[in-house]
Design a protein that fits this description.
The protein is an alpha+beta fold. It has a single domain, classed as Roll (Ubiquitin-like (UB roll)). It contains three helices and five strands. Strands 2-1-5-3-4 form a five-stranded mixed beta sheet.
Amino acid sequence: MATVRFTENLRRHLDCPTVEVSASTARDAIHQACEQVAGLRGYILDDQGALRKHVVVFVDGRAVVDRVGLSDEIENTSEVYVMQALSGG
């Protein structure tokens, strides 16, 4: 099963422990994680299901290319990292 992990910065805002999912795309993994973690969906996805601007998702160390449809493929052994993008000057 793929592992979905959340950064410490994101976990300060939501109680989102690491979850295991059976998924073939980043979208499936994110949606399954949202089913397991209350409040997660509204925080990381917009009303159309795309990643919010302040959220970045990495699959096996590479940023997802499809931020709207989240169609990037994942493997059963993939590690998916969800993090809040930081900005500033």
